[in-house]
Amino acid sequence: MVKAKPTDAPLVIARPDLMKAVERWRRHLAQERRLAANTVEAYARDVDQFLRFLTGHLGEPPKLADLADMRVSDIRAFLAARRNGGAGSRTVARGIAGVRSLIRFLERDGTATGAPFRAVRPPAQKRSLPRPLPPEAASKVVSLDQALDEEPWIAARNTAIFALLYGGGLRISEALALKRSEAPRNANEALRITGKGGKQRIVPVLPAISAAVAHYLRLCPYTPGPDSPLFLGARGGPLNPRMVQRAMEKLRSALNLPDTATPHALRHSFATHILASGGDLRGIQELLGHASLSTTQVYTEVDTDRLMAAFTAAHPRA
User: Fold this and answer.
1) For residue 298, what are the CA distances in angstroms to 32, 219, 239?
2) Other residues' Cβ atoms within 10 Å of the Cβ of residue 245
3) At 229, is the pLDDT very low, low, confident or very high (cuts 50, 70, 90)?
């Protein structure tokens, strides 16, 4: 009788003392800094990649003391390994963010030093600008007449979500986090949105948005409790964000829109179109829930590009 081969043991990427420190750091991000779950997971993946690299680089799983002995050459070797693995400049720069966060956390209790990490600059990267939709295209996306779903209530649901993204500047995660009791049912209501890092903001609700949500609720075949999600999937459970993305992909094809026409592009369109109509940058910052005005200022560059394109096309001496 042939014995089955034992399965390979899981790869150990760090010693127990370091793994405990990483777990403390994750709890700190989630509970004290109140970062979004997706951000915590992204940072954790960054650290996981770094620890895997150190396991090969050092010849054994690293321990907590190894982080205190890090040299600039070790960090540069990690960045080089990421680039050699096919990661672009943006990915490499973002990937070091989680590692630096961990090191700053450990530096406070003296178990690591951040000096080598501060001495290494991440690769330069070209800042990409948001890609908003033209106003006419955005209006078609949020029109129920353009919806391509066979089920009327699903068509109404997707239209209501797109209306919130474009008319209120919400992220998909923020729209799908709304409870049924928070549904804007009347014109000129306001929504209290909890965004990244637990930051709350007030978003005015346009009459068109409340009308779209009310129409969806009238057609929705499910009647869950007030604490249930506002937007439901086809079987009555929480709606997967991927379903919203697929609905946008179908519209993109039908309306001949570019690949940059994503649900998040509706949020970019919200900000860009308000700015183009004379909106105040500080006000847009509050509506979007940006912690820093510098994040919002990127939309001024988008609007400048739009104005220069119009100038070049129209001016006789351009």
Assistant:
1) 29, 39, 31
2) 13
3) very high
Catalytic annotation present for 264: yes
What residues pair up with 179 in beta bridges, in sequence order?
A: 229
Contacts of 253 (CB under 8 A, 6+ apart): none
Mean pLDDT of 210-222: 94
At position 15, the amino acid (one-letter code) is: R
pLDDT of residue 59: 92
Does the annotation mark 57 as catalytic?
no
pLDDT tens digits for range 130-143: 788 888 999 999 99
Contacts of 263 (CB under 8 A, 6+ apart): 161, 162, 165, 172, 244, 245, 248
Phi (first) and psi of residue 190, to 5 degrees: -135, 150
Q: Which amino acid is at 288?
A: L
Give the whole-angstrom CA distance, residue 79 versus residue 89: 10
Marked catalytic residue, from 196, 201, 235, 246 = 196
Domains, the chain, in order of start with CATH, read 16-119 (1.10.150.130), 135-312 (1.10.443.10)
Structure tokens at 29: 């991000």
Q: Encoding tokens for residue 83?
A: 């680039």
Annotation marks residue 290 as catalytic: yes
In angstroms, rounded to a whole number, what is the distance separating the alpha carbons of residues 65 and 47?
Answer: 16
- Our answer to whether residue 306 is catalytic in this structure is no
Residue 8: pLDDT band (50, 70, 90) is very low
Catalytic member of 26, 201, 267, 268: 267
